[in-house]
Specification:
The protein has about 325 residues and is an alpha/beta fold. It contains 14 helices and 11 strands. The radius of gyration is 18 Å and the shape is globular. The structure holds pseudouridine-5'-monophosphate (PSU) and manganese (II) ion.
Length: about 325
Amino acid sequence: MRPDLAGLLEVAPRVAAVLARGGAVVALETTIVTHGMPYPQNVETALAVEAIVRASGAEPATIAIVDGRIRVGLEPDAIRALAGMHSVRKVSRADLPFTVATAAAGATTVAATMIAAALAGIAVFATGGIGGVHRGAEETFDVSADLDELAQTPVAVVCAGAKALLDVPKTLEVLETRGVPVICYGSDEFPAFWSRSSGLPAPLRLDSPAAIAGAIHAQRALGYTSGTLIANPVDAADEIPAGEIRAHIEAAVEAARATGITGKDVTPFLLDRLLELTGGRSLKTNIALIKSNARLAGAVAAELAAGGGFGPFQRNPAP
Ligand code: PSU
Ligand code: MN
């Protein structure tokens, strides 16, 4: 940990202990808890995901901002408190210093969670879906900061692909331009979050956690300072096939357009509309896929740890 981070970053002792011995840790975000799922499924899922990470051989580190401190490794009570708060700020890269400076609370997006994970020395992070290029971005310029973060912060993010709510082809184009390796796990197709199929070919494919760890090692060895995106298709039993969700997606996107919603409210609005339009089915799929991602992330983190140290993290002084 950088010395000037003292007081800003607080790594839970159980997480710091595992990191100090080079063990496996998986970072987890909290915007999915506060803005991505309704109560009480959000808390239940957050705690279940931690248990899955543990069972797969890694230490979970759920990340959020509490009283202006970036907390890496929230305890269950703190997760419950965050989920129960009336309105919590959604914190991405642009909001993080402000939130810290104003001693506020905040839930971290994929981008902000990557920043915190990298500061703490955590290499692997599990989430549901990443933000991406929104439909109509040629007009609105709405491109998630998650994509730029993947291009500049050395954390491997395990997700279920990009939601078909987004413009998935443009999202993949931006990732390619920015040099982010996109590895699909056990599939020749890039997954579309609720659906296994996006109709787009996998940019890269690997079939085991060990192989994924090897790719991350190679990326570090070559001095890359960017992240990696690992896309894990939702299990067939849990998916909503692309054809079944398409009309709901069109309706949600149209509702957002009609409402004139912009900025960071867009993604939570769309997720909420989808939940209503699918009669709760999108939530069931969301819960299943984040659990599956946690399992894969735990296995990748364990393989990375078994393979020893890796690039940029070794250059940081020990916490
Ligand atoms: N996708 C989901 N659930 C979520 C998010 C995305 O299915 O909760 C959250 C993640 O935290 C992601 C953020 O980083 O939304 C992206 O928001 P934006 O598009 O405003 O960058
Ligand atoms: Mn946006």
